[in-house]
Amino acid sequence: TNNRFFFFFKAYQNSVRISPILAKKESSILLYMQTSTQLLLRIFPFWCFLLFFKLAGSLHYALFPILTERVFPVWVVGLLVGGAAGLQMIFDVPAGYTLDRYGYVRILFWSTSCFLIGCLLLLIGIYPWTIVLSLLLAMIGWLFFGPGMNAYVLVHAKKSVSGRFMATRDVMGAAGVVFAMTLLVCTVHAST
């Protein structure tokens, strides 16, 4: 495919009569774009993982207060969610050290497993112990997700294309949240 690419570029260069210096610069820019696209596609499974993690996480946190309100008073729901956010803030720096020590892939696997178990606990039923345990396990999942995801992206990105990788990370995360809110609207509409 590279030979075909350069053949078409040479034909383009001859048809528009570009100076050789400008043509060389354009070909290097086009080759750079091609390699950065290949790099982005190389970790495509990670982008899918990111999309579905954000989708599930957004659904969990959107439905959590609604489901918890059936068991606890509203002020207890606020304390639970605020307490989980406070614990995440406190353990953020130790989480980074843990990622450095044990590796981001291993910690991402275990934290995603904790988050999955926390979400599956809600399928047992809406009881006080399932809600609190689900929130704690989801907190562990969210705690290691951000730094682990950033480490994974930056390890696989070359320095010259790291900005594109981080932008793609943000786009996939935002797409997961948008899909989750769309599913939430459909779920609420179907349940009424």
Q: Using only CA atoms, what is the Rg?
A: 23 Å
Residue-averaged pLDDT, rounded? 77
Q: Which structural class matches the secondary elements? A: mainly alpha
The H-and-E topology, N to C, reads as HHHHHHHH
Share in helix: over 70%
Number of helices: 8
The beta-strand count equals 0
The termini sit apart by 54 Å
Basic shape = globular
Annotation keywords:
192 residues, mainly alpha, 8 helices, disordered N terminus
List the topology elements:
Elements lengths: L1 H15 L3 H23 L1 H25 L5 H17 L1 H11 L1 H21 L3 H29 L5 H30 L1
Structural notes for this entry:
- The protein has 8 helices and no strands.
- The protein has helices at residues 2-16, 20-42, 44-68, 74-90, 92-102, 104-124, 128-156, 162-191.
Kindly summarize this structure in a few lines:
The protein is 89% helix and 0% strand. The protein contains 8 helices and no strands.
